[in-house]
Amino acid sequence: MPSRLTWHGHANFQITTPNLDLIIDPWFEGNPSAVSGSADCSKMDLVLVTHDHDDHIGQAVDIAKATGAGVMAIVGTAGKLQEAGLPGGQIVNGIGFNIGGSLDFKGIKVTMVQAFHSSASGAPVGYIITLEDGFCVYHAGDTGIFSSMELFGRLYSIDLALLPIGDVFTMGPKQAALACELLKCRSVVPMHWGSFPILEQGADNFAEELAARGVKTRIYPMEPGQSIELGK
User: Fold this and answer.
1) 3 state DSSP class of 16
2) How far apart are CA 74 and CA 53, in angstroms?
3) What is the pLDDT of residue 191?
4) From CA 2, how far away is CA 11, in angstroms rounded?
5) Distance between CA atoms of 152 and 154, rounded to whole angstroms?
6) Which strands form 102-105's sheet, in the order they lie side by side?
7) According to the model, what pLDDT value does residue 132 have?
8) Per-residue pLDDT of the chain (232 residues; tens, 9 = 90+)
9) What is residue 74's three-state secondary structure?
């Protein structure tokens, strides 16, 4: 069975592999883009949180408690999740981990990388996730563009980047297109758009910016609830 990526709107992505289910920034309740609810996550092995804003923590604690899933977050934010009711034994590595570090979990490797945003606890982060078959996914979290993305492109062979394009609170289409060039990612799914009226309401401007720069990255403009297969 091939691995699959499902977008639940905003920055909420679920990855299902032959061995596990993981979810990143699981904001369902209150998410105007979501077409399903956290109760649909009846089976989950791992929950990743990029930063502590409500539209990213979402229902992380509820899902973890209901499923017994492990939770990955930066030190500090992991503590905040525990204060919100997450059993400490479900925090991977006990207290979380930090930027530059990697953890193995049931055959996948998760590397925490920097993001440039705000967070009341810990620091905002992104994740580079290497699946069991070597397929590499980069979830940027909420961020503006930064030059170290070029280093990610040199260090990792990124098959798919999940990049915010909404503008106002994150980078917009122009910065995201340059980010693809720096990352040398083979494909990209735009995120963090459409969920609030102030944000970009589609991916057309992003596609135009990619074309204007001559970036060869393939764009998958997903709709909330849609799934795509992941494979080399």
Assistant:
1) strand
2) 13
3) 98
4) 22
5) 5
6) 102-105, 108-114, 125-130, 136-139, 160-164, 187-191, 218-219
7) 97
8) 799 999 999 999 999 999 999 999 999 999 999 999 999 999 999 999 999 999 999 999 999 999 999 999 999 999 999 999 999 999 999 999 999 999 999 999 999 999 999 999 999 999 999 999 999 999 999 999 999 999 999 999 999 999 999 999 999 999 999 999 999 999 999 999 999 999 999 999 999 999 999 999 999 999 999 999 998 7
9) strand
**How many residues belong to the chain?**
232
How many whole angstroms separate alpha carbon 74 and alpha carbon 122? 6
Other CB atoms within 10 A of residue 150 CB: 14
3-state secondary structure of 102: strand
d(CA 127, CA 199): 23
Q: CA nearest 159: which of 125, 191, 133, 192?
A: 133
Residue 126: strand, helix, or coil: strand
Q: What sign does the dihedral 189-192-194-199 (CA atoms) show?
A: negative
| Token duo for residue 223 | 């709709």
Beta strands (DSSP E) in the chain are 3-7, 13-16, 21-24, 46-48, 70-72, 102-105, 108-114, 125-130, 136-139, 160-164, 187-191, 218-219, 227-230
Q: Are 192 and 222 in contact (CB under 8 A)?
A: no
Six token digits for residue 192: 């963090």
Whether the CB-CB separation of 13 and 135 falls below 8 Å is answered with no
pLDDT value for 232: 72
| β-strands 13-16, 227-230 pairing | unpaired
